[in-house]
Amino acid sequence: MTPPAVARSVAIFDLGGVLVEWNPRHLYRKLFAGDEAAMEDFLANVCTTDWNERQDAGRTFAEATAALMPRHSDKRELIEAWFSRFGEMVPGAIDGTVAIFAELKARGVPVYGISNWSAETFPTQRGRFPFFAWFDDLVISGDVGVIKPDPRIFAILLERNALDPATAVFVDDVEKNARAAGELGIHGIHFRSPDQLRRELAAVGLLPDAP
């Protein structure tokens, strides 16, 4: 991303892939007993990325399961596991990023969150990770009915908290989402590792330079 012209004073984080690890393979590798080819076929043709994004945008899992039944009724248990065993897709926190989050809070930086996440699966995970309570505000796509990279989800956070995009940095593990934030005047950072994130946050003045 192009370095901003001025220092930034507000941080906005994505959740999955930045603060917590998320991957359906953590669950489905168990359900397919290690048959990688069968698992990948299921994720490519049944519970696909597009199918999951509909839940992130507000569709219920009951509706999502029903939508797959005409073609995949033989896989009902596997499909229903996406919701009933969702927590197994989220094995834990990304500790290095959580440490950066804690450091920002200690420095008095306002920190907000925007996440593509189903309104039905987020509440149980919110309770697992105490640092989710550190956010000054958190926009969950399933609650507002719009997903990144749609600019409307960024506008919801900015307007709700009277934030100037020129003061903000947005961190996301999906490059197109970071780029969408940049188009609104937010400095987008494509997250690849905690060390890389620390360097980029130091470059915009949110963290001190590493010794």
Q: What topology does this entry show?
A:
Blueprint: E1 10-13, H1 25-31, H2 36-45, H3 49-56, H4 61-72, H5 76-84, H6 95-106, E2 111-115, H7 122-128, E3 137-140, H8 141-144, H9 151-160, E4 168-172, H10 175-182, E5 187-190, H11 194-203
Parallel strand pairs: 1-2, 1-4, 2-3, 4-5
Q: What features would you describe in this structure?
A:
By secondary structure, this protein is of the alpha/beta class. The chain folds into 2 domains: 10-21 and 91-203, Rossmann fold (3-Layer(aba) Sandwich); 25-89. Helix content is 46%, strand content 10%. The protein has helices at 25-31, 36-45, 49-56, 61-72, 76-84, 95-106, 122-128, 141-144, 151-160, 175-182, 194-203; strands spanning 10-13, 111-115, 137-140, 168-172, 187-190. It has a 5-stranded parallel β-sheet with strand order 3-2-1-4-5, sandwiched between helices. The longest helix is centred in the N-terminal third of the chain and has 12 residues, at 61-72. The chain is globular.
